[in-house]
Amino acid sequence: MRLREWTADDAEPVLRAFLAEDMRAQSAEPIRTRDDAVRWIEGWQGRGHAFAVELDGRVVGNVAVTGIDRHDNGWVSYWTTAEARGRGVAARATGLLAEWAFAERGLFRLELGHRTNNLASCKVALRAGFAAEGIERGKLVYDGVRHDVERHARLATD
């Protein structure tokens, strides 16, 4: 596995990932065409650090740290393609991202959150070394339904 910068050549795997029903709501703008996927890739510029997750030479996901503040805190996000799920890819990639963020970017605290009904994402966070810190009630709304979010964090000193 390796993490690398996104390029416009990665548009096809991004498009395939976001055409999956469970990924459609994971982007602020719909990704339905190759041009949409290129815009998604280009949209990371200046927003933080996003990396394509490569496994056996194929792009199978994304890990990112954004929202970096003056306190050296950052917000982590991740996704994997359907074929990569259940293989520990997201947890390993998120762990690599955390190591990079602490060593190369000098961050101290990384945070992430997931809906409380997303047990797979919770497992990713825990396996990547992010301790659960609490529940944010009613934080997200999808299709008119409010969802609680569990917050996790990992410190450079963990």
Would you kindly provide a written description of the structure presented here, covering whatever features stand out?
This protein is α+β, with helices and mostly antiparallel strands and 158 residues long. The chain has a single domain, classed as Aminopeptidase. It contains four helices and seven strands. It has a seven-stranded mixed β-sheet with strand order 1-2-3-4-5-7-6, with helices on both faces. A hairpin with a 2-residue loop joins strand 6 and strand 7.
Number of domains: 1
Strand content: 35-45%
CATH topology: Aminopeptidase
Structural class: alpha+beta
Helix content: 25-40%
Protein name: RimJ/RimL family protein N-acetyltransferase
Organism: Nonomuraea africana
Domain N-acetyltransferase: 1-148
Pfam family, one: Acetyltransf_3
SSE layout and pairing:
Elements: E1 2-5, H1 11-19, H2 34-42, E2 48-55, E3 58-66, E4 73-80, H3 89-103, E5 109-115, H4 119-127, E6 131-142, E7 145-155
Parallel strand pairs: 4-5
Antiparallel strand pairs: 1-2, 2-3, 3-4, 5-7, 6-7
InterPro entries: Acyl_CoA_acyltransferase, GNAT_dom, Ribosomal_N-acetyltransferase
Pfam family, one: Acetyltransf_3
Protein name: RimJ/RimL family protein N-acetyltransferase
Task: Report a brief summary of the structure.
With about 160 residues, this protein is of the alpha+beta class. The chain has helices spanning about 10-20, 35-40, 90-105, 120-125; strands spanning about 1-5, 50-55, 60-65, 75-80, 110-115, 130-140, 145-155.
